[in-house]
Amino acid sequence: MPRERVKQLRKETDPSTSTKRLEAHHLDQRHNGGEDRVDNLFGLTLDEHAMAHHVESEIHARNQDHREARCNRGAVNLILKRMSPDEKRSFSNMVNTRLRRRL
């Protein structure tokens, strides 16, 4: 069942845009033993998925958990490789907006 849920999420689209497909984001990350269980998966668009790992990376870096920060930065880089130029621009805008809010 969980593998089918991952496959289903990959085929689904974001209802707000009807064009962006959803990716499975693990709430408890797989590198920490998180499983492909329905209650551990959440559907996110590519830019939302990248942002989730970007924010997690920042949190872990602040908490001096460098291994976790590195794992999340690696996840962001893998997601960026799957993005179209428009999706990369969208993600970049999200990150820049987040940075501007801090200043």
Topology:
Elements: H1 2-11, E1 23-26, E2 41-44, H2 46-62, H3 66-82, H4 85-102
Antiparallel strand pairs: 1-2
Helix pairs in contact: 2-3, 2-4
**Oligomer class:** single chain
Task: State the helical fraction.
Answer: 55-70%
% residues in beta strands: 5-15%
Distance from first to last alpha carbon: 45 Å
Largest sheet: 2 strands, antiparallel
Shape by Cα distribution: globular
Q: Please state how the strands of the largest beta sheet are arranged side by side.
A: 1-2
- Summarize model confidence as the mean pLDDT: 78
List unreliable stretches of 5+ residues: none
Number of domains: 1
Number of helices, where a helix is a run of at least 4 consecutive DSSP H or I residues = 4
Indicate the structural class. Answer: mainly alpha
Characterization of this structure:
This protein is mostly helical and 103 residues long. It has one domain. It contains 4 helices and 2 strands. The protein has a two-stranded antiparallel sheet with strand order 1-2. Helix 2 packs antiparallel against helix 3 and helix 2 (46-62) runs parallel beside helix 4. The mean pLDDT is 78.
What is the gist of this entry?
By secondary structure, the protein is mainly alpha-helical. It has helices at residues 2-11, 46-62, 66-82, 85-102; strands at 23-26, 41-44. The protein has one domain (2-102).
